[in-house]
Amino acid sequence: MKYLWLYVIAVIASLGGLLSGYDTGVISGALLFIEETWNLTASAQGMIVSAVLIGAVIGAATNGILADIFGRKKIIMATAVIFVLGSVLCSFAPNPFVLIISRIFVGFAVGIVNFVVPLYLSEVSPKHLRGTLVSLYQWAVTAGILFSYFINAVFAGAVHNWRWMLFAGVVPGLVLFIGMCFMSDTPRWLVRKGRDEEAKKVFAAIEPNEDAEKEIEAVKLTLQDNNDGEKFRFQKWMIMPFVVGIGIMFAQICTGINTIIYYAPTIFKSAGFDSNITAIYATTGIGIVNFLMTIVALFFTDKLGRKPLLYFGLTGVMLSLFALGSGFAFGDYFGENLKWVTVGSLISYIICFAMSLGPIGWILISEVFPLKIRGIAMSICTVANFAFNFFVVYSFPILLEKIGGDWTFWGFGVVSFFCIIFVYYFVPETKGISLEKIEVNWINGVNPRKF
Which end of the chain is more exposed for a tag (fewer CB within 10 A), N or C? Predict the structure, then answer.
């Protein structure tokens, strides 16, 4: 198989997404039982769920430069170790305060892995496969979410159920660490560090039909063109890549995805499901749809392009949110059928998100930044992602309590509409364009709609 080793590298690195996805999904079911253990207020629930995002902001903010200094591989391995330790701490938490602190620690690893794995994948991928391979990360995220839902269902009836749910996070951490022990670093990072011979071997392994020397020279040329580091960081043309990167992170989060992932069982119970276990089973169905539809995205990101999928996905997300809000608004009319309106709306939402914003958000931020600051720039975008995430996730149970599900989900629907406009005017189509060519287009002031 032509690209066998490339796919092996991509699959193993993508296990970082399994780590992130597990932590994202496991709290949704665990929260129902944590609330019973400690009788939490809405604000306390929001803090326990969103605590991981505080750590994620710190992790993303402090490790961009470390990924550039020590390499992508070592940072991925470090996150695995942190996640294993954090999962153990969460499972033994004696009170809500310790649980919050432990989840902040876990979040530190999540913040790192969410930018360093897509960065790793983009730098080992040929241009015609980059969208597909970076999409593997989001697919692994959905696999981690689905795995967490299954774990929630398995332990729902057990003694100390939520503690076992959180402890099981040790598994994806160990799998990631062991897998990365056998991987090399990215050839582009190796060239930047002057390790040309190592880079040549990696290029030869991942792109056997390409001239490794030519690939190395292209990377070196890009680095030489931006030799003045301080001036490079503040040139005017750099504004647009950051607009695209931070803007697509806003679209990915502020259209409400993590209110669904983190709070799906809570939403189902609000819609009429009568028990924690039934709500968890319904949530598992959402996880299965999320996992399967992300596979669809793997086949289309490099065929149809990024923007067509974003248009389709955002439109579907917007309509699903309006339907979900209407279900809550007219709950008296729907009666017992409200639960099925909720299920249908959530499935529709997940289908559209998983095919578009989920993978494409991470693909774009791994593509639009120049090599010399790609690690730091992706770190900044990931900080923005988790900052948006914290605001949305923390405020969601409070919004449900204060203004109800109808206005909450309608609000997310309005945000989705404005995100469609943003994609049209500001997001470039990067399908089939090399990372070096994308950088040249920014430098030359090419309009994002004409890439």
Answer: N
CATH of the domain at 253: 1.20.1250.20
Q: Is residue 174 part of a domain?
A: yes
Decide if 134 contacts 121 (C-beta within 8 A).
yes
Residue pair 49/287 in contact (Cβ under 8 Å)? The answer is no
Range of the domain at 35: 4-183+226-450
pLDDT in tens, 75-101: 999 999 999 999 999 999 999 999 999
**Domains held by the chain: number:** 1
In a domain, 123, yes or no: yes
Asked if residue 196 is part of any domain, the answer here is: no
Burial grade of 404 (CB within 10 A; 0-12, 13-18, 19 or more)? middle
- Of 189, 194, 149, 203, nearest to 378 (Cα)? 189
